[in-house]
Amino acid sequence: MEQAGVGRTGLARVSLASLPTPLEMRPDLARELGIGSLAVKRDDLTSAVYGGNKVRKLEFLLGQAIAEGRTAVVTFGAYGSNHALATAVHARALGLEPHAVLSPQAPGPFARATLLAHAGLGTQLHPVESWEGETEGARVAAMLAERDGVEPLVVPMGGTNARGIAGYVEAAFEVAEQVEAGLAPKPTVVYVAGGTLGTALGLAIGFAALGWPTRVTAVRVTPAEIANLQAARRLAGEAIELFARFNASFSGLRFEDLALVLREEWFEPGYGVVTPETLEAVRVGGRHGLKLETTYTGKAFAAMAADAAQGALRDESVLFVDTYSLAPPPDPGPKDALPPVLRAYVDECERQFGA
């Protein structure tokens, strides 16, 4: 796999993404919503294979696995986790064996498609009963280390650690280059889905390093024990410390310097639960050529639309980050290849939403 070199964070990575992704002005959508100006960062186009925003993180995470001679990767997510699927897709392409520890979520067609794609890839799936999957992850990692004589790379949920965050620090600098080229005005407000907060944190750190006051609005879509300001503070400190070793632009940055806002009110009634607001967001986005979904991007778009409806964005230059993968999931495999708990879940998805 081609090495992508060393970016502004000083960390080497493998080349997985098609960069830069487009930065598109959307004047018609801005007028419809009541936004001063609106640009969309098309990170749904990071990979023709699969991945959305996850691919930027995986360049650094899987690059670490290859550099360290790992043979397998263990990661975490909900049943329908795009991160877990993207990790499996790109790990397979790099010759790494993918394992995913998966937690329950409400039934839905996207989750069904994701699990069947895992079946097609041959991902080793390990279902657990709650979002606390660390114990099972440790068991799987120990089993692989004993089997292979090499510890697997354990990738946290969402690919969010200091190395994963580097992907979106680089994205912030990419946006700055596109603004400098005249593709869009400098954003005053960013809206992005907040699952494990790695994407939002990377953008906030990057903009702070640039000296931009851009406010990054992370719309929480996961339980509060996963996405919270205490976790964000810890992750930001670890990431800034790592980046500052290689680039003085990050030296002296503190969490308090980041213009990060965590919006809590859009999570309920729960992870992956479809609401009228998110369905409307998907419909409006689709009418303007954006393929959104109801768990992540739909909620971020709904928050932006609600703020605009209240007049809060009339004088703002808004950037919406489309993190969903426009590339469809890989070809599905047989349902019988899934563990029994996940087969039953797919059956329930099909009962409620059709095959």
Write the layout of secondary structure elements.
Elements: E1 3-6, E2 12-14, E3 23-25, H1 27-33, E4 37-41, H2 54-67, E5 72-78, H3 82-93, E6 97-103, H4 109-121, E7 124-127, H5 134-148, E8 153-154, H6 162-180, E9 189-194, H7 198-210, E10 215-220, H8 229-244, E11 260-263, H9 276-287, H10 297-309, E12 317-321, H11 340-353
Parallel strand pairs: 4-12, 5-6, 5-8, 6-7, 9-10, 9-12, 10-11
Antiparallel strand pairs: 1-2, 3-4
Helix pairs in contact: 2-3, 2-6, 3-4, 4-11, 6-7, 6-8, 7-8, 9-10
Task: Write a structural description.
The chain has 355 residues and is α/β, with parallel strands linked by helices. 42% of the residues lie in helices and 16% in strands. The protein has eleven helices and twelve strands. It has helices at 27-33, 54-67, 82-93, 109-121, 134-148, 162-180, 198-210, 229-244, 276-287, 297-309, 340-353; strands at 3-6, 12-14, 23-25, 37-41, 72-78, 97-103, 124-127, 153-154, 189-194, 215-220, 260-263, 317-321. The strands form three sheets. A six-stranded mixed beta sheet has the order 3-4-12-9-10-11, with helices on both faces. The chain has a four-stranded parallel beta sheet with strand order 7-6-5-8, sandwiched between helices. α6 packs across α8 (229-244) and α9 (276-287) crosses α10. The longest helix is centred in the middle third of the chain and has 19 residues, at 162-180.
What's the number of domains? 2
* Parts with pLDDT < 50 across at least 5 consecutive residues: 1-5
> What proportion strand?
15-25%
Main sheet record: 6 strands, mixed
Tally of DSSP helical segments: 11
- What is the CATH class name of the largest domain? Alpha Beta
> SSE order in H/E notation?
EEEHEHEHEHEHEHEHEHEHHEH
